[in-house]
Write a structure and sequence with these properties.
It contains 8 helices and 10 strands. The protein has 276 residues and is an alpha+beta fold. The strands form 2 sheets. Strands 1, 2, 3, 4, 5 and 6 form a 6-stranded mixed beta sheet that branches.
């Protein structure tokens, strides 16, 4: 018996840091969507103990025997051990919630395998676990536990760009000087992609400035994206270093991705629809 689940990239269209708790956890107010690109987690029955195999284009440098969110999530379940396979198609430490998405997909694959329950308390695995398990566009608040639905998203397209740089999430938060920023404005009904971009222009990613100071390639990525025709908004996702451009149509996004790949053939560049 075997089962698998998709682990889509999580993209923060906006991310405000609104405070910090006494225990060190930061309070967020973020608009989250999910891309068409991502990893895959598979589970196969019959293992005597938990086993993890990692393959895919971004498997290099990952040790399946080292502590990771996938095996931590799997061990939270009450079912028997399984052989897990993680196919990594997303860059590592890229601000796309890959580890959390992989853990969520592992729980879903194990549930599909034999019906075992998904644990109720997944926040201990990371702030992105609840939203990744839900897998729907959402406004994410608190330390990740407070999720609310968004108005229907209009058809729009993203170009995701990673220059092959890694930034430490902890380092980015440590470099953040203002941690009590105002929350997001209330989401509205967006009629089309330009309306969504106009609303997002009044928001921020509060982690972008410290991340750019730590990794200048982020600024280069944003400049490349912003220079493409049809780009409505260029911004960093999460704690970086992946950046995105927002476009109204698939041909505009595809042309922008082609232009960036031509200029930077070593970069990871992908397109994805949202609101479809």
């Amino acid at each position: 018996m075997a089962a698998e689940a998709f682990a889509p990239a999580k993209v923060n269209l906006a991310l405000h840091v609104t405070g910090q708790r006494a225990d060190g956890y930061h309070l967020l107010d973020s608009i989250v969507v999910f891309a068409d690109v991502g990893d895959t987690a598979a589970a196969e029955a019959g293992a005597d103990d938990w086993q993890l195999t990692i393959d895919g284009p971004f498997a290099h440098g990952l040790d399946p025997d080292a502590p990771n969110l996938v095996t931590r999530a799997a061990r939270l379940t009450e079912g028997p051990p399984a052989h897990l396979t993680l196919t990594k198609r997303l860059p590592i430490a890229a601000g796309l919630g890959g580890g959390s998405a992989d853990a969520a997909a592992t729980l879903q694959a194990l549930h599909a395998l034999d019906g075992r329950k998904i644990p109720n308390d997944v926040l201990s695995l990371g702030a992105d676990l609840p939203v990744c398990l839900a897998g729907q566009p959402a406004r994410m608040r608190g330390i990740g536990e407070d999720l609310s639905a968004l108005p229907d998203l209009p058809p729009a397209w993203l170009v995701l760009v990673n220059a092959g740089r890694h930034v430490s999430t902890g380092g980015v938060y440590a470099a953040l000087t203002v941690k009590d920023n105002a929350p997001l404005p209330e989401p509205v009904k967006w009629s089309d992609a330009p309306a969504l971009a106009n609303w997002l222009a009044g928001t921020r990613n509060d982690l972008e400035e410290p991340a750019r100071a730590l990794e200048p390639a982020i600024g280069v990525s944003l400049a490349q994206i912003g220079a493409t025709e049809g780009c409505l908004l260029a911004r960093m996702s999460g704690s970086g270093a992946t950046c995105f451009g927002l476009y109204e149509t698939a041909p505009e996004a595809s042309a922008a991705a082609d232009a960036i790949r031509a200029a930077q053939p070593d970069w990871w560049v992908q397109t994805s629809g949202i609101g479809r």
